[in-house]
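Query protein
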Amino acid sequence: NEYLNFLATTGAVGLGSYLLLIGWIIWWNFKHLKSSALFAGWASILITNFFGFSVVPVALFFFLFPAFAVVLAREDSPPSRPQKQVPITNYQLLITILVLFTICYFLFSISRFWYADVLYARGNRLNKQGVYDQAFNTLQRAVSLNSSEPLYHDELAWSSASLAVLAAEQEEIEASNQLVQISLSESDKALKISPRHLNFLRTRAKIYYRLYSLDPSFLQPALQILLRASELAPTDAKIFYNLGLVYYQLGQKQEAVETLQKTLNLKPNYQEAKTALDLILKEK
């Protein structure tokens, strides 16, 4: 029920505060009761919360009903005497300005993080659609807004690698080389922030494999990255499958066969691994 939910999420202090608030509201209503119907409606919330969970409207009524009761109780109270207005001191004005500035700063920071997330989602979608040039520009903006998020660097690294291959196909060698450097640099930043993140290691291996068409020397570092990933995730069949393919392309057929056999031990119904293993064995 709702009370156990409070205990599980906020602990004894949270549940104790919640029950203390309920007790105070009950005591106040008995002392200043103006509408029994209003109190009965509020008490029904306590019963429904005991047998289930509250939704947003119920949670609002939990606080609004006591507020209504306070307003009704004050209607019969004698009017208070008008008080003299006390001028605001310079110190109070300074504190107010500082508080407002702090609030505005935090709101601005939060809005930057939010917009960076929006840009990342857009760039990720463009990458999946193969629109790498737009994805690259969008993800660069996301990184500029929040450079501490490794996921943005990782996604930007992939779009940069894809653009590098496209630029090389159009014989724009200088642009391709620059994009290769950007891709590796962004991937380095992601792995520096989160060096044991398996998805970032996978992306790094994908980048090397993607750039293999430009320079065969990228295949060896792809092997090292996959070996590192296999140590972190020794039961991930897909990593071993990719590792087997890299071994094969490096000409290490025996290691490729052993790795693909290990892949099938981890996931016997892995059809791609079965097909790759059969093809390699036929060649042997």
DSSP finds twelve helices and no strands in the chain. Residues 201 and 229 are 6 Å apart (CA to CA).
